[in-house]
Amino acid sequence: MSTPMSQSVQHGAAPQWVEALPEVRGSYHHQFAMADLCWFRVGGPADVVYLPADVDDLAHFLAHLPADIPLHILGAGSNTLIRDGGVRGVVLRLGAAFGAVEQIADRQLKAGAAALDVRLSRAAADASLSGLEFYRGIPGAIGGAIAMNAGAYGGETADCLRKVEGLTRQGEVVELTAAELDLSYRHNGYADFIIYTAAYYEAVPGDETLIRAAMQEISDKRKTTQPIKSRTGGSTFKNPAGTSADGPKSWQLIDAAGCRGARIGDAQVSELHCNFLINHGAASAADIENLGDMVRQKVHQTSGVELQWEIKRIGEAAHG
């Protein structure tokens, strides 16, 4: 995000448990305005946002964080809706120290969890490696891609991910294979708490010109079919029927239910792609969430399908 963390602090009383936070080499930011970290540009403040200096700093933090302090993980903020009442506890956000992408073998790339998906696809193209072009069409970071098995344009994370590195809630280092994550359509089945710190991908040798052409085609298609210049959170609902290839897509069900262009205040179902919700500037998080729930209700009434949220919603509703 372009907004410096130090410019986004709101005034407010710090909760008593703040004194119990461990000393770190990274930084704490109290009463942080979370709208600055969310692509919808909505949401109340977090009690504390923590930016770790590196993996060791994060491990120390986790090992010494009291178990009763809530901990939330925020990635790029592209597929997240933060509620108007803000977030209690600590919000962890990985920064530049977790953003590197490097080729480590002929067919293998390592990406930090905070690296943007598009950066990984470009690194693969630079190495003439194919299979990661689809990441050009996903506006998020690698950690989030693993957490939800993100995919687009015929590819998904499970196709090319080989293993991950991460930390437990106690700060212990773990390494897991992709099979252990039990990935399925927009789902990560790993049951235990883990903070992903890095991921290892395997690709196949290809023609750099063809790889870049495929990435450009994805980029051009996004520009013409999705409201990418709006305040949006990406695809709002998962496609039904278990896989994106089976049955009607969510946008088709939403369109058939008459919801294209529907509004609540400044929140609107996109006219361009009706599986996207848009904040035209003055929408609250409640407006956006209520609009999404209204869409779900109308789709269920017209088709019998219960759409499932793909956007992650965190925090509390505004009080009063």
Strands of the widest sheet, in order across it, are 6-7-15-11-12
N-to-C SSE string, H for helix and E for strand: EEHEEEEEHEHEEEEEEEEHEHEEEHE
Poorly predicted parts:
1-7
- Count of β-strands: 21
Mean pLDDT: 93
What is the architecture of the largest domain at the second tier of CATH? 2-Layer Sandwich
Characterize the main sheet. 5 strands, antiparallel
Report how far apart the termini are. 31 Å
The number of helices is: 6
Question: Roughly how many Å is the radius of gyration?
Answer: 20 Å
What is the name of the CATH class of the largest domain? Alpha Beta
Overall number of domains: 3
Q: Helical percent range?
A: 10-25%
Q: Helix/strand-derived class?
A: alpha+beta
The fraction of residues in strands falls at 25-35%
Shape, principal axes of CA atoms: globular
CATH topology of the largest domain: Uridine Diphospho-n-acetylenolpyruvylglucosamine Reductase, domain 3
Notes on the structure:
By secondary structure, the chain is an alpha+beta fold. It has helices spanning 55-64, 117-126, 142-148, 208-225, 250-256, 285-303, and strands at residues 27-33, 45-51, 71-74, 80-82, 87-93, 101-105, 108-112, 129-130, 151-152, 155-156, 161-167, 173-177, 183-184, 187-188, 195-202, 204-205, 231-232, 263-264, 267-269, 277-279, 312-314. The protein has three domains: 5-93, Uridine Diphospho-n-acetylenolpyruvylglucosamine Reductase, domain 2 (2-Layer Sandwich), CATH 3.30.43; 98-223, 2-Layer Sandwich (Uridine Diphospho-n-acetylenolpyruvylglucosamine Reductase, domain 3), CATH 3.30.465; 231-305, UDP-N-acetylenolpyruvoylglucosamine reductase, C-terminal domain (Uridine Diphospho-n-acetylenolpyruvylglucosamine Reductase, domain 1, Alpha-Beta Complex). Helix 2 (117-126) runs antiparallel to helix 4. The longest helix has 19 residues, at 285-303. The chain is globular and about 55 Å long. The two termini are 31 Å apart.
